[in-house]
C-alpha cells in the first residue's frame, strides 16, 4: 500500500511516517504544496493524508487538482481548522474523511485503513485476525466460523483494535473514538474498562484466545501470535 | 419622545411665551397711544374754554353729553393741571363708565373755578378689546400654521435620516452586506450616512480579521498539540518503556485532551458570538434530546443515574449544530456534576425545557454559573460548557435560568413564541 503524507510540520509527519510505516505501508512525505503537487501528478497513491493549511498553498486546491486529473486516490484531510465549512468543502471536493488536529495516531491509522479497505476491498470485506473474522460490510464478527453477538460499542472497539493490531492504543484514544470529542479530560475511564472486559469475555467464551492485553495504566493492545 | 414632538413642544412653548410678552407690550403701547389721543381732545376743549373765558370773562355753559362732560366748581385755591382716570355715572346706560378727565383752574369774573373736562374712555376700551381679539386670533393662526409647517417640513427633511437608521437596523454581520447609499442633498445627513457606512465597513473588515484570527489561532495551537500527542502515541509503543513512566504519560494525555477541548470550546464560543452559524432549520427538540440520551447512555449507566424524560414535541428554527451542542452540554453537565445513583430529569413542556440533576450545592456563587471558566475545584471540565449554552441562548433570545431546589440543580430554558423568531431573523 502506498501512502502520501502531505504535511509541512516535519516533526508531525515524522511521527505519522513512523507509526504507519510499521503497518506495512510504503509512505512518502511531501512537506509543501509544490512538492505534493509534483508527487500526485507522477504517482498514484492508495491514500493521501492531506494537511490543508500548507505554507505555500491550500490543500483543498490539491484536491481539485486530483479531481481534474481524474485520479482516484483516497484522501484523508488532516486539518488544524476544525471548522464545519472546511469539512463540508473537503468532503464535497471528494475527500474520503476529515480528521481535525490534534489526533491520536491510532485514530489516524484506523481511518487510513478504513479508507483503503473501502477503496481496494474488491468485494473482500473481511478482516481476519487468526480465528476472529470481522465482516465490515455486515458489521458482524465470527469466531472459528461461529457468529458472535457484540454490542455496537464492542464491535467498534474490536474494529479499532483490528486496525491498530500490535499497537498500544491509549485509553484516551479509545474514549475519543467511542464517545467523541467531549469525553472530558480526567474522565472516568471505568466505562472503557467495562466495555473491554465485556469484549474480552465474549471473545474468550466463544473460543477465541485472549488477544487483548492491558498495558499497565495506559492502554490496551491487540496482540496476535 | 420623537424629535418632532420634542421640537414642536419647545418651539410652541417659546412662541407662545414670546407672543404673550409681545401682546402685553402691544396692549400697553396701544393703550398709551389711545389715551394720549384722548388727552389731545381734552386739551383742545381746554383751549376753547380758556379762549372763551379770556374774551368774555365768564364761564361757558357746562355741557353734559353722552361721552363728554364739562363742569365748573368754585374753588378756594388753584389746582395743579392734571389728567386722571375716573368713573362717572352714565344715565343712558344706567351704570358707571370709565372717563378720562382733565382738571385745571380758570378764573372768571374774579372767581376761581376748577374746570373739569371729561371724555368717555368707552370707545378707547372697545377699540383696545377689538385689537386684542384680532391679535389673539392672529396668534392662534400663527401657531397652527407653524405646527403644520414644521410637521410637514420635518417629516420630509428627516426622511434620509430614517432611511439611514433603517439601514443600520437591518445591518447584519453574517450577511456581509454593506449599508445602502442614501441619496440626500442635506450635508448633515450625508455625513451621517457616510459615517455609518464607514463604521459598518470597518465592522465587516474587523469581523473578517477576527474570523481569520480564530482560524489561525486554532491552527497554531492544534498543531503543537498534535505533535506532542503523536510523540506520546509513539512512545507508548516502546517495549522498553518503564512502568514508572506510564502514569506521567497518562497525565500528559489527559492534559493534552484538556487543552484541545479548551481550545475548541473557546473557538466555538467565539464563532457563536460572531454569529457564524446562520443556517437554521426546524429541529424537533424532543427527538434530539432522546437521541442525545441514547448517545450518552454509557455515561448515564456508568454513574447509575435514574433518568426521567418527559418530552413534548417542540419544533424550533435553530442551527442544527448549535442545537446539538446546546443539549449535549446541558446533559453532559447534568451527568458529570451528578452523584452516583442520582437523578436526571428532563422536562420539555409548553416551550420550556427543564433539566434537573441531584448533586451538592455549588461551591461558587450561583449567579456566575454561566460565566466563562466558572467551575468547581475538582471539575475536570473546561468551565466553558455552560458559557457556550448561555451564548447560544443569547443568540436566539432564549431565556436561561438556574436554581437550586431540594438538593437539585435545575437549568431551565424558555423558548420565545414562534413569531419572535421571525422578527429576529427578519
Low-confidence stretches of chain A: none
Average residue pLDDT of chain A: 87
Q: Give the quaternary arrangement of the chains.
A: heterodimer
What is the percentage of strand-forming residues of chain B? 15-25%
Number of helices of chain B: 10
Helix content range of the residues of chain A, please? 40-55%
Largest sheet of chain A: 5 strands, parallel
Total beta strand runs of chain B: 12
Q: How do the strands line up in the largest sheet of chain A?
A: 2-1-3-6-7
CATH topology of the largest domain in chain A: Rossmann fold
Q: If you had to describe this structure to a student in words, what would you say it looks like?
A:
The complex is a heterodimer of chains A (225) and B (426). With 225 residues, chain A is of the alpha/beta class. Chain A folds into 2 domains: 2-120, Rossmann fold; 126-222, Winged helix-like DNA-binding domain superfamily/Winged helix DNA-binding domain (Arc Repressor Mutant, subunit A), CATH 1.10.10. Chain A contains 8 helices and 14 strands. In chain A, strands 2-1-3-6-7 form a 5-stranded parallel sheet, sandwiched between helices. In chain A, helix 2 packs parallel to helix 3, helix 5 packs across helix 6 (152-163) and helix 6 packs across helix 8 (190-205). The longest helix of chain A has 16 residues, at 105-120. The radius of gyration of chain A is 18 Å and the shape is globular. Chain B has helices at residues 3-56, 122-157, 159-170, 187-235, 246-273, 285-295, 297-302, 320-336, 385-396, 418-425; strands at residues 63-64, 68-74, 82-90, 95-108, 111-120, 281-284, 306-311, 315-318, 343-349, 352-358, 399-405, 408-414. Chain B is α+β, with helices and mostly antiparallel strands and 426 residues long. In chain B, strand 11 (399-405) and strand 12 form a beta hairpin. Chain B folds into 3 domains: 3-154, no CATH class; 189-269; 277-425, 2-Layer Sandwich (Heat Shock Protein 90). In chain B, helix 1 packs antiparallel against helix 2 (122-157) and helix 4 packs antiparallel against helix 5 (246-273). In chain B, strands 1-2-5-4-3 form a 5-stranded antiparallel sheet. Helix content of chain B is 55%, strand content 20%.
Amino acid at each position: 500500500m502506498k501512502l502520501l503524507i502531505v504535511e509541512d510540520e516535519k516533526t508531525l509527519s515524522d511521527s505519522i511516517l513512523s507509526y504507519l510505516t510499521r503497518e506495512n505501508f510504503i509512505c512518502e512525505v511531501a512537506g509543501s504544496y509544490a512538492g505534493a503537487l509534483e508527487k500526485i501528478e507522477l504517482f498514484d497513491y492508495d491514500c493521501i493524508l492531506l494537511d490543508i493549511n500548507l505554507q505555500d498553498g491550500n490543500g483543498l486546491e490539491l484536491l481539485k487538482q486530483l479531481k481534474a486529473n481524474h485520479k482516484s486516490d483516497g484522501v484523508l484531510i488532516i486539518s488544524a481548522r476544525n471548522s464545519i465549512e472546511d469539512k463540508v468543502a473537503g468532503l464535497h471536493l471528494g475527500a474520503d474523511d476529515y480528521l481535525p488536529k490534534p489526533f491520536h495516531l491510532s485514530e489516524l491509522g484506523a481511518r487510513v485503513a478504513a479508507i483503503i479497505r473501502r477503496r481496494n476491498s474488491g468485494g473482500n470485506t473481511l478482516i481476519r485476525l487468526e480465528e476472529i473474522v470481522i465482516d465490515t460490510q455486515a458489521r458482524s464478527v465470527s469466531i472459528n466460523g461461529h457468529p458472535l453477538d457484540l454490542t455496537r460499542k464492542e464491535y467498534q472497539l474490536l474494529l479499532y483494535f483490528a486496525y491498530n493490531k500490535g499497537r498500544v492504543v491509549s485509553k484516551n484514544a479509545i474514549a475519543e473514538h467511542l464517545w467523541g470529542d467531549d469525553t472530558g479530560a480526567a474522565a472516568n475511564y471505568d466505562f472503557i474498562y467495562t466495555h473491554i472486559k465485556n469484549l474480552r469475555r465474549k471473545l474468550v467464551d466463544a473460543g477465541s484466545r485472549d488477544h487483548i492485553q492491558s498495558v499497565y495504566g495506559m492502554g490496551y493492545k491487540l496482540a496476535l501470535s | 419622545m420623537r424629535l418632532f414632538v420634542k421640537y414642536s413642544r419647545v418651539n410652541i412653548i417659546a412662541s407662545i411665551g414670546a407672543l404673550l410678552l409681545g401682546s402685553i407690550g402691544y396692549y400697553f403701547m396701544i393703550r398709551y397711544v389711545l389715551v394720549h389721543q384722548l388727552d389731545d381732545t381734552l386739551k383742545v376743549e381746554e383751549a376753547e374754554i380758556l379762549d372763551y373765558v379770556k374774551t368774555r370773562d365768564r364761564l361757558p355753559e357746562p355741557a353734559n353729553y353722552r361721552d363728554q362732560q364739562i363742569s365748573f366748581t368754585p374753588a378756594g385755591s388753584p389746582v395743579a393741571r392734571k389728567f386722571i382716570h375716573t368713573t362717572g355715572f352714565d344715565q343712558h346706560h344706567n351704570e358707571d363708565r370709565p372717563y378720562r378727565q382733565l382738571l385745571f383752574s380758570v378764573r372768571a369774573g374774579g372767581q376761581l373755578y376748577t374746570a373739569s373736562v371729561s371724555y368717555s374712555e368707552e370707545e378707547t376700551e372697545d377699540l383696545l378689546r377689538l385689537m386684542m381679539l384680532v391679535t389673539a386670533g392672529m396668534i392662534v393662526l400663527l401657531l397652527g400654521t407653524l405646527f403644520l409647517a414644521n410637521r410637514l417640513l420635518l417629516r420630509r427633511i428627516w426622511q434620509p435620516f430614517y432611511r439611514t437608521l433603517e439601514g443600520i437596523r437591518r445591518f447584519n454581520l453574517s450577511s456581509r452586506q454593506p449599508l445602502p447609499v442614501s441619496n440626500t442633498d442635506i450635508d448633515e445627513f450625508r455625513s451621517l450616512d457616510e459615517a455609518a457606512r464607514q463604521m459598518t465597513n470597518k465592522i465587516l473588515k474587523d469581523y473578517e480579521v477576527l474570523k481569520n484570527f480564530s482560524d489561525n489561532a486554532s491552527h497554531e495551537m492544534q498543531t503543537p498539540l498534535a505533535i506532542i500527542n503523536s510523540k506520546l502515541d509513539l512512545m507508548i509503543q516502546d517495549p522498553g518503556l518503564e512502568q514508572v513512566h506510564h502514569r506521567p504519560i497518562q497525565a500528559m494525555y489527559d492534559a493534552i485532551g484538556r487543552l484541545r477541548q479548551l481550545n475548541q470550546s473557546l473557538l466555538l464560543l467565539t464563532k457563536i458570538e460572531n454569529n457564524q452559524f446562520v443556517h437554521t432549520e426546524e429541529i424537533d427538540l424532543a427527538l434530539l434530546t432522546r437521541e442525545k440520551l441514547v448517545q450518552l447512555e454509557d455515561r448515564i449507566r456508568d454513574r447509575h443515574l435514574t433518568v426521567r424524560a418527559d418530552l413534548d414535541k417542540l419544533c424550533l428554527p435553530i442551527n442544527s449544530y448549535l442545537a446539538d451542542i446546546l443539549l449535549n452540554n446541558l446533559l453532559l453537565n447534568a451527568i458529570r456534576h451528578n452523584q452516583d445513583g442520582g437523578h436526571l430529569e428532563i422536562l420539555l413542556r409548553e416551550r420550556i425545557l427543564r433539566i434537573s440533576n441531584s448533586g451538592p450545592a455549588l461551591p461558587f456563587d450561583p449567579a456566575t454559573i454561566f460565566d466563562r471558566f466558572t467551575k468547581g475545584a475538582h471539575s475536570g471540565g473546561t468551565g466553558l460548557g455552560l458559557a457556550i449554552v448561555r451564548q447560544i441562548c443569547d443568540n436566539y433570545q432564549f431565556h436561561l435560568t438556574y436554581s437550586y431546589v431540594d438538593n437539585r440543580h435545575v437549568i431551565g430554558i424558555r423558548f420565545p413564541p414562534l413569531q419572535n423568531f421571525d422578527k429576529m431573523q427578519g
